[in-house]
């Protein structure tokens, strides 16, 4: 049985927005993901609908027709409250390499000074946590990863950089993330990941999905260069484990 109150409102003529309480909680995220699976299985065909879960919301987009909000809203409310069989979500833990060398972690010193901890402690804290993918956006393949240790919480930079390099690993607030391409950005950069986060030519352009888990592990500059080459030619093998928590 669904346990949280939701609100439903139109989001343009082809979309509808379903919102849960404004909290960043895995329980809410999992409830959203379970609702998505229920809708796909019983009510809304994937060929006609797009499902975009993130944090505490679900955006439903009808690809081919305008939505009759007055008709769909009560149906969604009914479907949400319906008693559902337990859903086993297919989630994975991805272990991704990060080079935390100061050449790539261009804000390490600033983060160290602000938080009052050493480079080594920053690396240990950042790579020991297991993060949850709460959303994908801003750029194709940019994943918002929740679960940053409290000791690493730091505000966004007051003035964003005009260019952050592809693969840069940043922290801001309670989150961490990897820039999938060169772009402007205001997060504090503490390292760089050698794995490409988005490939438009791939059948699955972004290998991570909302609900997946991520853990980073430190690598040297030499390992970063090797992994980067392997990733570019398509022979790098990522560590992917079934998440059964």
TrEMBL record:
<keyword id="KW-0547">Nucleotide-binding</keyword>
<dbReference type="GO" id="GO:0016787">
    <property type="term" value="F:hydrolase activity"/>
</dbReference>
<keyword id="KW-0067">ATP-binding</keyword>
<dbReference type="InterPro" id="IPR010016">
    <property type="entry name" value="PxpB"/>
</dbReference>
<dbReference type="InterPro" id="IPR029000">
    <property type="entry name" value="Cyclophilin-like_dom_sf"/>
</dbReference>
<feature type="domain" description="Carboxyltransferase">
    <location>
        <begin position="6"/>
        <end position="208"/>
    </location>
</feature>
<keyword id="KW-0378">Hydrolase</keyword>
<dbReference type="Pfam" id="PF02682">
    <property type="entry name" value="CT_C_D"/>
</dbReference>
<dbReference type="GO" id="GO:0005524">
    <property type="term" value="F:ATP binding"/>
</dbReference>
<dbReference type="InterPro" id="IPR003833">
    <property type="entry name" value="CT_C_D"/>
</dbReference>
<protein>
    <submittedName>
        <fullName>Sensor histidine kinase inhibitor, KipI family</fullName>
    </submittedName>
</protein>
């Amino acid at each position: 049985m669904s346990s949280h109150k939701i609100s439903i409102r139109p989001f343009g003529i082809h979309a509808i927005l379903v919102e849960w309480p404004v909290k960043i909680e895995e329980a809410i995220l999992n409830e959203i993901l379970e609702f998505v699976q229920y809708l796909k299985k019983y009510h809304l065909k994937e060929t006609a609908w797009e499902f975009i879960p993130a944090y505490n919301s679900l955006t439903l987009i009808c690809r081919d027709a305008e939505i009759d909000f007055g008709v769909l809203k009560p149906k969604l409310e009914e479907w949400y409250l319906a008693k559902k069989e337990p859903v086993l979500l297919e989630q994975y833990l991805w272990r991704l390499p990060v080079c935390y060398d100061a050449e790539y972690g261009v804000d390490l010193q600033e983060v160290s000074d602000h938080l009052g901890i050493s480079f080594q402690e920053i690396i240990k804290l950042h790579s020991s946590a297991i993060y949850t993918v709460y959303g994908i956006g801003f750029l194709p393949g940019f994943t918002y990863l929740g679960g940053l240790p409290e000791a690493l919480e730091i505000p966004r930079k007051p003035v964003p950089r005009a260019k952050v390099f592809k693969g840069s690993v940043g922290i801001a607030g309670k989150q961490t993330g990897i820039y999938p391409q060169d772009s402007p950005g205001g997060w504090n950069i503490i390292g760089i990941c050698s794995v490409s986060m988005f490939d438009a030519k791939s059948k699955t352009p972004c290998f991570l999905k909302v609900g997946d888990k991520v853990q980073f592990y430190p690598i040297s500059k030499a390992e970063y260069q090797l992994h980067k080459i392997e990733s570019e030619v398509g022979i790098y093998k990522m560590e992917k484990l079934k998440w059964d928590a």
